[in-house]
Structure formats: C-alpha cells, structure tokens
Amino acid sequence: MAKLGVGVLGVGEMGKRHAENLRRLVPEARLVAVTDVAANRARQIAAELEIEKSFRSLDEMLDCKEIDAVLIATPDKFHAKGIETAANAGKNILCEKPLATTRADAQRALDAVEKAGVRLQIGFMRRYDPAYAAAMKRVEAGEIGEPVIFKSVGRDKDVPPLSAYQSNINGMLFYNNTIHDFDLARWLMRDEVTDVHAYTTVAIRPEVAHYGDVVASVVNLKYARGAIGNVESYVQAIYGYDVRTEIVGSKGSIFVGSIEKTPATFVSAAGSTGILADHFLSRFADAYLFEVRDFVRNMLHDLPPRVTAEDGMRALEIAIAAEESHKQGSPCKVESESHASRVA
Ligand SMILES: NC(=O)c1ccc[n+]([C@@H]2O[C@H](COP(=O)([O-])OP(=O)(O)OC[C@H]3O[C@@H](n4cnc5c(N)ncnc54)[C@H](O)[C@@H]3O)[C@@H](O)[C@H]2O)c1
C-alpha cells in the first residue's frame, strides 16, 4: 500500500494527538518524524510513538526525503512561517487553526502555497465531527429550508494560567477559539459573513486586558443573503467543555452538540447527574482522527483538501473584523481578499 510520509511540527498537546493518530490509526500514513523547538519533548514523543526521527527545527525535518507532508501544530503565531517553509520545500500541509494571526502573514503563506503548487488544509476539525457532519448533510439536502439564524456557543473549561497570555504566542480569543465558530458560521449557513458587531468582557479578570485579550465575547453576524447570527465564546466556564450550535431555517432547525460526554442522564432522590464533556481532545476525538485520515487519503490521491486555504482565510477575515469591532466599539465590515480562492 502506498503510504504518505508525514512529519509533525510542534508536538505539544494538540500535535501529540495528531502524531498518535498518524502513527497508530491511519494505515495509509507513515509518521516519519516529529519536530519541536523543545528538543527533549520531540525526543520523548518519538520514543513513546516508537519512531526513530526527532528534530529541533523544521528545516532539519524537511531534509528527510521520506517526508511528503507536514502537519503544523505550533502556537498560532508560527503557523504562517511554518506553511511558507514547508511549501517552499514542496510539501503538502495540514495546519492547525488559525491560518495566521494577521492578514499579511496569511497572504505570505498563501502566496508560498500557490507558488509551490502544494496543497494546504486548515484544521477546522469540527467539520469532521459526526454530529456536525450529519447536520451539514441535512442542510445540504434542504431539510431545514433556507437558513435564517446561526447560533453557536464555545466555552472552554479551565481558567487559563496568566502565563498563557503573557507568552503572546497565540492569537487572542477570536483567533484561537471563536475562529472554529466563525468557520462553522460560513460552512453550515453556506453563505459569507459580511458584518460583525463584537461585545467583549474582562470584568471577572481585568488583568487579561493588559495582554490584549478578553475573557468572553458575543459577536453578532450579518450574512450576504440576509441571514443573521450570534457566536459566544468563553474561556473559563468551569463546569465543562461546552460546544453547541443551532441552525434555524425556514422549514426546520438543527441543534448540534450536548453538554454531556455520555448521552445518558442519571436520576435519583438527590437529583440528576450527568458526565460532562471536559476537554476538546475527548469531545472531538473522532473529528481529529477523521480529519487526519481524510487529509492523508486526499494527498495520496492528489485530490484537493476538504477544508481549504480559502476557508482558513475567510474565517481569519471574520476574526480580524471582530477584533476591530471590539477595539472600536461599533459594527465592522468583513474585508475580504479574493486571493485565497485561487489556492486549493
Ligand atoms: N483544532 C483544535 O481543536 C485545537 C485544539 C487545541 C489547540 N489547537 C491549535 O494547535 C496549536 C498548538 O496548540 P497546543 O495546545 O498543542 O499548544 P502547546 O503549547 O501544548 O504545544 C505547542 C508546541 O509547539 C512547540 N513550538 C513552539 N514554537 C515552535 C516552533 N517555532 N517550531 C516547532 N515547535 C514549536 C512548543 O515547544 C510546544 O511543544 C495552536 O495553534 C492551537 O490553536 C487546535
């Protein structure tokens, strides 16, 4: 069987899961090497996954002839540079979200991809989640008629340590978290967002504002064909990892997601208890696996990725407009570049 040789760049929490999936659960892939600026971490993950090669830099990994594709899971601000370097070496790429944290970085990355003629997939893995995928099938089949309202909630569980803000290597809330919902907002509604109005708060943790970030936000959306939407993000929900979405249409509605990890409710004289989802790695375990499998199969068969560079750019443009709206305290237009549509 032909196998796709893959190298993983950045093997922290997310990159490690991707590397595990590639090594153990994707028969058409061969995990060739892992790379991390923390060389010890790369060595340790390589040992755990029983592969020989680990590196400290992408350039070193790209010297490996067996590598056909690179999976990028470094912090947000290093994505664009990683894409540029991997593309210049002629490798196909699966990059975690967001594509970049600035339009200029995103554009440079996409230019490199286009010039090299390689393929780029962005890690919007919710599209691979069975519940979201089933919802999309019904939208596409016209079962809810014309979508009218989009609503999405994304709440992380634990209070992020202040060091996560201080390090300044990830994008603020809209780029790091809400971007998943901005992607769903386009994908499930099959339309483009034209205007956003963001409300944000740091009321329960004012020190977060020193790092240009916020604790929670709601962003109202307006769509090109007239629909409307609302997206809420919150980084410290405490009770669990809570991701839910509604698509309200002219003939029916779809509700995706549940707060419960297991679809069972336990009741007794003491009341009811359920086991709540607590982390993205468990809630979206299938989605991460299906995402990587689909990428590997498409690259092996020289097919375009299912989640494109354009998807990465459009979601980034909504995040940029949301940040602008947050800063100005007024609604903002989503400025769109036509360039991304040329890259598949
Ligand atoms: N799709 C999702 O649901 C999802 C979930 C979590 C994280 N992410 C994304 O994955 C990326 C990584 O997040 P994480 O939670 O694993 O972070 P992390 O901090 O746990 O891991 C990042 C790793 O990258 C390494 N690193 C930093 N700079 C590097 C560089 N220039 N070259 C090579 N390695 C480098 C670090 O040493 C670390 O091991 C982020 O962009 C994040 O937004 C996506």
Q: In whole angstroms, how far apart are the ends? A: 26 Å
Q: Outline, from the CA principal axes? A: globular
Strand content: 15-25%
Main sheet makeup: 7 strands, mixed
- State the low-pLDDT regions, or none: 339-344
Fraction of residues in helices? Answer: 25-40%
The total count of helices amounts to 12
How would you characterize this protein structure?
By secondary structure, the chain is of the alpha/beta class. Helices cover 35% and strands 23% of the residues. The chain contains twelve helices and 15 strands. The strands form three sheets. The chain has a seven-stranded mixed β-sheet. A six-stranded parallel β-sheet has the order 3-2-1-4-5-6, sandwiched between helices. It has a two-stranded antiparallel sheet with strand order 13-14. Helix 4 packs parallel to helix 5 (103-116) and helix 9 (179-189) crosses helix 12 (309-328). Mean pLDDT is 95; it is low at 339-344. It binds nicotinamide-adenine-dinucleotide.
In short:
By secondary structure, this protein is α/β, with parallel strands linked by helices. The protein is built from 12 helices and 15 strands.
